[in-house]
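Final report, closing paragraph on structural work. Over the funding period we assembled a curated collection of sequence-structure pairs, and we close with a single example.
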Amino acid sequence: MSNPSHVLEVHPIELRDDMIYEVQPKAIVDRQVRKLRSKDIASVKVKWKGHSREEATWELEDKMHEEYPYLFDNLSNYSIISIKFRRRNFYKMGRL
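Its predicted structure, as stored:
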């Protein structure tokens, strides 16, 4: 017996000439800054189109801003919180 609610929708996948499928980012869901001895390294957690939030990955903020500047348009509603843990500073992004 078949159940019509178990039917999956098929979405076409765009492949480049070299047969690589490029996933586009959907949104930035988190941000952190790791403070090293001489510099800060900013990362953003990116949710990718067609993937769940649990599959979001940490990417370098500079690289993402360079390749996908539109993702940063609505980040003005966020604030950065500083957290000190085991003599190290961590920064966390949160909504205002």
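The chain has a mean pLDDT of 78. Helices lie at 61-67. We thank the funder for supporting this effort.
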